[in-house]
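S.,

Sequence below, as promised.
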Amino acid sequence: MANTPYCGQLIDLLAKGDKLTQLKQEATSLSTIILTSRQLCDAEMIINGGFSPLTGFMDQATYEKVVDEMRLPNGNLWPIPITLDVPEKRAESLKIGERVALRDEFQNLIAILTINSIYIPNKTKEAEFVFGSADDRCHPAIEYLFDQVTSHYIGGTLEGINLPTYFDFEEIRLTPAEVRSKIQKLGWNRVVGFQTRNPMHRSHRELTVRAARDAQANILVHPVVGMTKPGDVDHYTRVRCYKEIMNYYPNGLATLSLLPLAMRMAGPREAIWHAIIRRNYGCSHFIVGRDHAGPGNNREGKSFYDPYAAQELVKKYASELGIEILYYQMVVYVEDLGEYRCSDEIPTGKRVLNISGTELRNRLFRGNEIPEWFSYGSVVKILRQTYPPRAQQGFTLFFTGLSGAGKSTVANAVRVALLEEGSRPVSLLDGDELRTHLSSDLGFTRHDRDINIRRIGYVAAQVAKARGIAITAAIAPYREARNAARRVVSKHGGFIEIFIATPIEVCEQRDRKGLYAKARKGLVKGFTGIDDPYEAPESPELTIDTSKFSIKQSLELIMQYLEKECWLQSKHH
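The prediction came back faster than expected:
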């Protein structure tokens, strides 16, 4: 039997019958807000009851109380703000009491929102209280908050019209009500929920089986397939792995369902949130492991949260959650015993083996063996299909630097060397050529330059996706536009930023067209390095000053780097 929903009632905001017809008709005359990927995930979880007791996006009072105290206005525990952001101009066009249609990027109607609050959030406070730092952009949710979330939040209640449409894995995309119904049909009394955003291997299977044994329960493998951490394995690959690993559970012990959640990687707060969500899906128990929902390292290179901070916070509020929490330390393989154990249960002197996520990626990139004790051969095969060795993946060489620094000259030399190497198609995306063919509509304002770099990033990503090599050479003066290009390209292949750090004095000496001289006289406006800033990359993969290295030496540095990082087969193989 499924556990009771959080706060006693499973919210279901999907309109039916005449009400649905009426809302669809009304929506044709309403203004529209196009939901971002994260907003769409949140809207789905509000409508389907995964976020019970929420019935809409948070108004200002609710938002502030959740940020400050992890509580809703009625006192119930809720750790994560669920907000709908809009740009300032859009916010100014809206008013309290207005009804707006919420649609996905393809204009599919999702819901109608009745606005009850329009406000400017304190993002610095939100970052500090929810994520643990006011400004550390190494945390993906803090970077998202400051770089992608817009200026105003609007709160209000939702009336659901459609849940988002999916064309993949439909049979295992179950709503809370459907999971509950399945638990009922299977005759399960106790259910352990298992959260993951990574492919599952033997240690995860051992942990969940142990949890089921400890709780005398069955298992709901409940991976997140909404938004996870940038750089994570794509959900298509992960779900194929999950479906495969289900074959290794004892018959009837476990079931698989996908969760359309947009994770925030908020560590301790997120662990509470995950527990509440799993209760809404009918779980009686929930596993909180080591570094639950942690985002990795902070800017000091240390783990953002203490590895067991999530367990401590969940223990503090356990009595309010209404779901029993199972706490485990890291599960590792004890070679001498030939079995997996939690790290606090290993006999003294026994040899322990473990492969971190980083090491696994490195083994995949290098085509190295992944041992049978770590994962199942059939799961590794799926991962290798998506992640062939780096020497078979696409990548982008992103040259940036001042006008006259030598970007195009070095980039062309690299293009020729890579064509000689011959492992993949090579496309040189030169800044001037792209301005002619792709961005002739753009000027040189900051806004237009950002759009130009985003377009270059998009084209480079398509080349990398097809497992080719894209070489881009553009001034790209602004850090955020370069970072946006990195985000887009990194979804499909490698992104190697090469800063051609030639001093401006040298660039001026090389300037045959006299553009620097004209800029210094004020005849050319908005010239990078003179009256418009160049924001030097903070951590490029390579920095080369062409006043100190010849073109041949620069080429050699780049080719050596590509071999060292396994993007190219070593000549010595």
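The radius of gyration is 26 Å.

Coffee later?
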